[in-house]
Design brief:
By secondary structure, the chain is an alpha+beta fold. It has a single domain, classed as Deoxyribonuclease I, Chain A (4-Layer Sandwich), CATH 3.60.10.10. About 25% of the residues lie in helices and about 25% in strands. It has helices at about 1-15, 50-70, 80-95, 165-180, 200-205, 220, 235-240, 275-280; strands at about 15-30, 75-80, 100-105, 115-120, 120-130, 140-145, 150-155, 190-195, 245, 260, 265, 270-275, 285, 290-295, 300, 305, 330-335.
Length: about 325
């Protein structure tokens, strides 16, 4: 820890800038427009109770998490619309937190989408199409500039496990095609809800409904977070493999490697994956040991994420309590001058 503090001090004296980047699945932030693509419980002004007051409560709860997380850049998943993102941005403004720059990406007719908020300029933002089918969310690429250096951030929300692994493999292949076109020394960061455990190649094998790819996974095999012998790529190993990537979950003790709970199973569905360039220590580098989960007491209930609450009686309606079924994760990156 002393070494980390000393290194941070030296870099600050040299004019380097530390940037905290996070990703957070906010669990269904729907606006008040009836677009016809909403989940039934989020159709405005029905007996389910999704109304203006409930929407404002959801915005306040989500903004509270983002405010206390204190990230400079944050990728977001499960936004319904650009309107919802702008309303969240306005709520943060009211709380004294300003993100001047943002980008949003939504596949046509999809129910939910992804976005990004940034305190630093976005040089560009574009969407990468996976499929025209509404089950697939576009991947948002945002180029963030700090101290004259550019970092590409890819915000992902892959298909849930209601679909087989072939659907997440398709997203991974589309992303890998984009990455393969970059210069090998280009720094990039992959973030978001991949609906994939950091060791998915182990966890999905016993579930035949998921393993429809003969053991191949999107996150591990396509993005190459494991080697040919199915060993995890290490932080040192990724420096010497231009085609590999390193999952930051390995920087935490094993019992802390989760961000989501489902029927008693803890999984790391949310991921931050770095390119070789971010490990090598160039103009932009990952600060080793800075990765973590955001786990204040109010975000946990009985040892699992305190998700947005619905009544247990039918018809289920919103209670205006809770936050998200995911935890936010974050890491720090240093941009030199």
């Amino acid at each position: 820890m002393r070494l980390f503090v000393l290194l941070t001090l030296i870099l600050s004296l040299l004019g380097a800038t530390d940037v905290k980047i996070a990703t957070y699945n906010v669990e269904n932030l729907f606006d008040m427009n009836d677009d016809g693509t909403e989940y039934v419980e989020f159709i405005p002004n029905t007996s389910r109770g999704w109304n203006q007051a409930m929407y404002q409560t959801k915005l306040q709860h989500t903004a509270q998490v983002i405010q206390e997380l204190g990230a400079d850049i944050i990728g977001l998943q499960e936004l319904e619309s650009e309107t919802a993102l702008k309303d969240l941005k306005a709520q943060l403004n009211r709380q004294g937190i300003y993100y001047p720059y943002y980008a949003f990406s939504r596949t046509k007719n999809s129910t939910i989408a992804v976005g990004i908020l940034s305190k630093y300029p976005l040089k560009s933002a574009l969407s990468h199409r996976i499929s025209s089918h509404r089950a697939y969310r576009d991947i948002l690429e945002a180029k963030v500039e700090v101290n004259g250096h550019v970092l590409r951030i890819y915000v992902n929300h892959w298909k849930s496990k209601s679909g087989g692994e072939h659907m997440r493999v398709l997203s991974a292949k589309a992303l890998k095609t984009v990455l393969a076109a970059l210069n090998p020394n280009e720094p990039y960061l992959l973030i978001g809800d991949f609906n994939s455990h950091y060791e998915e190649y182990k966890t999905f094998l016993t579930r035949r409904t998921l393993n429809d790819t003969e053991g191949i996974t999107g996150i591990n095999h396509i993005l190459k977070t494991i080697d040919a012998n199915q060993n995890p790529i290490t932080f040192e190993g990724v420096k010497n493999c231009n085609d590999c990537s390193y999952n930051l979950w390995y920087d935490l003790p094993e019992d802390q490697r989760w961000s989501h709970e489902y029927h008693g199973h803890y999984e790391a569905l949310d991921n931050m994956i770095i390119s070789p360039a971010l490990a090598k220590g160039g103009a932009i580098r990952y600060v080793r040991g800075s990765f973590g989960r955001f786990t204040p007491e109010y975000l946990l209930h009985k040892g699992k994420p305190y998700r947005w609450q619905h009544s247990k009686t039918y018809p289920k309606h919103h209670l205006g309590e809770g936050y998200s079924d995911h935890l936010a994760i974050y890491a720090t990156f240093t941009f030199t001058h």
